[in-house]
Specification:
Elements: E1 3-10, H1 14-22, H2 31-35, H3 38-44, E2 53-58, E3 73-76, E4 80-81, E5 96-97, H4 100-112, E6 118-120, H5 127-137, E7 146-152, H6 162-177, E8 184-190, H7 207-217, H8 229-236, H9 244-252, E9 257-268, E10 271-280
The structure holds fe (ii) ion.
Length: 288
């Protein structure tokens, strides 16, 4: 059967993609950001660690969706997803190859589990999806695994609650575990951390709160699922709500996790960047 083998969070800041493209990723400003990904870029290339499929939780930034349609949760079931043109031409990265069999299985399982998913059969994917792939896999001719896009609305109020995101992750974990092929799946949650892009508090970064959130992803606690929207807004700025997407990743890992890698750095463009890698702990091993 399929299994979720690891969970990864990553920023998806568009400026990271620009740094890669312009070859400035080793300068004084970007160097500490990219250095933080080196341990896990090496880890994922070790035997047994490259997943067959990544379920990549992200938000679209008015590339595939706009005010005409705002799906709360949308799953990409297509064979291929092309990089979106976000105004400067598509990012020069490979097409994203999907996994329609697993994606449709997850869609069916989630809907029968009472999550009303939007199913997307044609969609271009923007920096929210492709920048994390670049951060983990570098510049490549083709991505080394298949990717199922899972888009979450965190742009237009109301975004889903953290609790609903965590529960969706749990349901995705059940869906993966019931897929009859022996494949490994990583859950990625992208976006965040604290940042505000406009208004009097533009530039807000809250390192203490961000690190509290990172702490809460590790181990057995599930208290992060109960953080209300107003706390994200107050403590992490108007765009910090992207962190609810990380809770989908965390929910899919089950009751407890083990930390493999953690990196936090300020500033990165207008934000704090947080990158964390977790392994699920089998329920039989919790407390052992
Ligand atoms: Fe974003």
């Amino acid at each position: 059967m399929a299994r979720v083998t690891a969970g990864i969070t990553s920023s998806h800041i568009p400026a990271l993609g620009a740094a890669i493209q312009t070859g400035t990723l080793h300068n004084d400003y970007w160097g500490p950001v990219f250095d933080g990904y080196e341990p896990i870029k090496a880890w994922v290339r070790e035997p047994g660690n490259m997943p067959d499929v990544v379920i990549l939780v992200y938000n679209d930034h008015a590339s595939a969706f706009d005010m005409n349609i705002i799906p709360t949760f949308a799953i990409g079931c297509a064979e291929v997803f092309k990089p979106a043109d976000e105004g400067w031409g598509p990012r020069p990265v490979p097409d994203v190859i999907g996994h329609p069999d697993l994606a449709w299985h997850i869609a069916q399982s989630l809907i029968l589990d009472e999550f009303d998913m939007t199913i997307i059969n044609e969609m271009d994917v923007d920096h929210g999806l492709t920048v994390p792939l670049s951060m983990m896999f570098g510049r490549v001719e083709q991505w080394p695994c298949r990717v199922i896009p899972l888009a979450v609305n965190v742009v237009t109020y109301p975004p889903p609650s953290g609790n609903r995101c965590w529960a969706l992750g749990e349901a995705i974990g059940r869906a993966v575990a019931s897929f009859p092929e022996d494949i490994s799946v990583q859950m990625w949650g992208t976006g965040g951390m604290s940042h505000q892009l406009q208004g009097p508090r533009a530039g807000l970064i809250n390192a203490a709160w961000d690190n509290m959130f990172l702490d809460g992803l590790i181990g057995e606690s599930d208290h992060l699922r109960r953080i209300p929207h107003i706390e994200y807004l107050r403590e992490t700025g108007s765009e910090g709500i992207e962190m609810v997407m990380w809770l989908i990743m965390r929910g899919a890992l089950g009751p407890a996790t083990r930390l493999l890698h953690r990196h936090y750095h300020v500033p990165c463009s207008n934000t704090a960047i947080g990158h964390i890698v977790l392994e699920p702990i089998a329920p039989s091993s919790i407390g052992a």
